[in-house]
Specification:
There is one protein chain. This protein has helices at about 15, 35-40, 80-90, 105-115, 135-140, 145-150, 170-175, 195-200, 210-225, 240-250, 255-260, 270-285, 295-305, 320, 370-380, 380-390, 410-420, 430, 435-450, 455-470; strands spanning about 70-75, 100-105, 125, 185-195, 225-230, 310-315, 330-335, 350-360, 395, 425. It has about 475 residues and is α/β, with parallel strands linked by helices. Strands 1, 2, 3, 4, 5, 6, 7, 8, 9 and 10 form a 10-stranded mixed β-sheet that branches. Helix 3 crosses helix 15. It starts with 12 loop residues before the first helix and ends in a 10-residue tail after the last helix.
């Protein structure tokens, strides 16, 4: 398994062999009305605390007696890493009240009234299924420019600016239009096809580096009563975590850039068609775990850790999130998208990796300096190591792993990044156009296709329509790769 030598002469051949059809269905789409509501609310108090004195120990000028309020998304990474960093904040500013901390999975619904009323928290971990649309928030000037944080001395080395301590691409992800930095992505996420090395070894198999080998392994597993794939069917926008880099590998990163830029006919690119038809074949051949379209992310991960399916598209937070059900000998690992055939534009190993867990400071935060200082503390080596040890994920701090014993999943992430080299792609739809990515492309588009209720051709046509509508929508701000 894993050899590409048997397929060097295939060219585009296998793509023309994948021809399927299915009845078109419809899935209920959750409302995202908050996205415009929270971004348009301009009422309420705009009273900020008085800025403190700027010193070498207080480079951002934090008011040493002012309160600070933080809201954390309580998902795959939990909240303890943030609580620990907040303790460091209170140690640095003992005259300030204890940091007011809250954790929730309901970011959108719980913070909507506060954004509308002009009284948002100072620092928000804007993540999860109810993530607020950051493209809208940026476009409506609801976020604070974090450039002062980026230009501040780093926590460990005053000779280095914070921006110089970040992993490649993290700062750029927070920039939507020019130089301002609107978002601080704290985690560094490796996306891909996650699997158990132990379960592959039970089948005397290795991770499939070609799509034909992927299908062959799925067929082998099916004979043993094991599904090839599962995914969060209720949140099928997880599928792009492996599907988007697959598209980029087949057609080149420019295909993904055109999609991000909402260019006409971007979704009609042959690379999209080939990738969609390949994934659709998983459904056609019965290689997807029965009942997957009705599973949440936790339920699908649980089925996967129980060995009911070999592969799941996900991000590197999955190790921590799935820990309660993961066997000790699971040997969790991540793989890059398999090669479709010899004509792929990018080599095997091409992966999607980027900043994750987006932290924002609302423009109407009462203590913006305190919020930025909290982030500066989080971007210290000590806090970064604490994060990595607790949640088994890399942070945005470029380091923080020295002396640590990495799990198989984390080591796997480090290894695939090393193998990818410069072949790391970073699609921006999920932070530029959240509604388009989640509700339309994910749920109404790809989700319907993978459930067998729409063909690849029908899905591409539908998604292109969604993208065209978004491109013409003058109520939202549009972004392009620079």
């Amino acid at each position: 398994m894993g050899s590409t030598s048997a397929h060097n002469n295939e060219g585009l051949g296998r793509r023309s062999l994948i021809k399927r059809s299915a009845a078109l269905g419809l899935i209920a789409v959750p409302t995202m009305s908050f996205l415009s509501a929270c971004a348009s609310g301009d009422s309420g108090s705009d009273e900020k605390v008085t800025k403190g004195k700027t010193t070498a120990k207080n480079p951002l000028g934090v008011n040493e007696t002012a309160a600070l309020e933080v809201v954390i998304f309580n998902g795959g990474f939990g909240e303890q890493y943030a609580i620990d960093a907040e303790k460091k904040y209170n140690e640095a500013f003992p005259k300030a009240p204890k940091v007011k901390h809250a954790a929730t999975q309901k970011i959108q619904s719980q913070l909507q009234p506060r954004f509308n009323g002009g009284t948002p928290p100072d620092l928000i971990d804007n993540s999860g299924a109810e993530q607020m649309d950051m493209g809208v928030l940026v476009g409506k000037k609801q976020l604070l420019d974090l450039t002062p944080l980026m230009d501040a001395p780093s926590y460990d080395d005053p000779a280095k600016k914070v921006r110089d301590t970040l992993r490649p691409g993290v700062l750029e992800m927070g920039q939507f239009d020019g130089d301002p930095v609107w978002i601080m992505y704290y985690a560094y996420t490796v996306y891909g096809v996650w699997y158990s090395q132990t379960n592959l070894e039970k089948l005397d198999s290795a991770y499939p580096e070609t799509w034909d080998d992927m299908l062959a392994l799925c067929a082998k597993a099916k004979k043993k009563g094991i599904a090839g794939w599962t995914y969060p069917g209720k949140y099928p926008y997880y599928l792009p975590f492996s599907l988007y880099p697959f598209i980029g590998k087949i057609g080149g990163r420019e295909v993904l850039d055109k999609i991000d830029n909402l260019e006409p006919n971007a979704w009609k690119d042959p690379a999209v068609k080939a990738a969609f038809e390949a994934y659709y074949e998983l459904f056609q051949k019965g290689y997807i775990l029965k009942g997957t379209p009705g599973l949440t992310h936790i339920e699908s991960q649980t089925q996967w850790t129980k060995g009911k399916a070999l592969f799941i598209p996900n991000g590197s937070w999955v190790e921590n999130e799935a820990a309660p059900t993961t066997p000790e000998d699971f040997k969790m690992m991540v793989g890059a998208p398999s090669s479709l055939d010899a004509s792929d534009a990018l080599p095997y190993g091409t992966i999607w990796a980027s900043g994750g867990e987006p932290f924002i400071v609302p423009s109407k935060a009462k203590n913006p300096e305190g919020a930025m200082e909290q982030l500066r503390i989080m971007l210290s080596e000590e806090s970064s190591k604490n994060f990595t040890q607790q949640v088994k994920s890399l942070s945005a701090f470029n380091g923080g792993t020295d002396g640590l014993t990495l799990s198989t999943a984390m080591q796997s992430g480090v290894d695939v990044l090393k193998k990818a080299g410069d072949n790391v792609v970073n699609p921006r739809l999920q932070d530029w156009y959240v509604k388009l990515q989640k509700e339309q492309i994910g749920i109404a588009g790809i989700g319907e296709m993978m459930a067998g209720r729409a063909t690849p051709a029908e899905t591409i046509k539908k998604i292109q329509g969604f993208a065209d509508a978004a491109a013409k929508d003058q109520s939202i701000k549009h972004y392009k790769h620079q």
